[in-house]
Specification:
The protein has 144 residues and is α+β, with helices and mostly antiparallel strands. Helix content is 24%, strand content 26%.
């Protein structure tokens, strides 16, 4: 998980980065972090184009934000369950609330992992505000 945030830390500090944002990353990049089921659903959900940019689909799931700029203090830690990793960071806005210039808040995500032939991969990301990324992608995929 730390590698994922290291590799995509540019999203928090650059308007245009060296690669596409994680939502538009090619299959090979997604395969590096996510399990095959989630990658397949993610790629299928892209077929709806801009028509489905709601909820999780319109957000960068690594930051739980439509605009990851300004995020800092990313903490990643394991739990007693090897399938669960928690991530917490400081964001300029708290998901689901109006941004305030003078304030920021903590954003919390839970990553669910599964062992694969290539090592542990992310099978879902759960946001306190948006719920399950996998469920949102499945819903979009089934509607379009």
């Amino acid at each position: 998980m730390k590698r994922l945030y290291h590799d995509y830390s540019w999203e928090a500090v650059m308007i245009v980065g060296p690669d596409p944002w994680i939502g538009d990353a090619p299959k090979a990049a997604l395969d590096h972090y996510f399990n095959g089921d989630l990658v397949a659903i993610w790629l299928k959900s892209r077929k709806c184009g801009g028509d489905c940019a709601v909820g999780w689909i319109g957000y960068d799931p690594l930051w739980d934000s439509m605009d990851p700029s300004g995020f800092s203090d990313v903490s990643v830690w394991g739990t007693d369950d090897p399938h669960i990793v928690k991530v917490e960071m400081t964001g300029p806005c708290v998901p689901g609330k109006a941004c305030k210039p003078e304030g920021s808040g903590r954003v919390r995500l839970i990553y669910f992992l599964r062992p694969t032939a290539l090592g542990w991969r992310i099978s879902d990301i759960r946001s306190e505000v948006h719920g399950s990324l996998k469920a949102a992608l499945l819903k979009v995929s089934s509607e379009h």
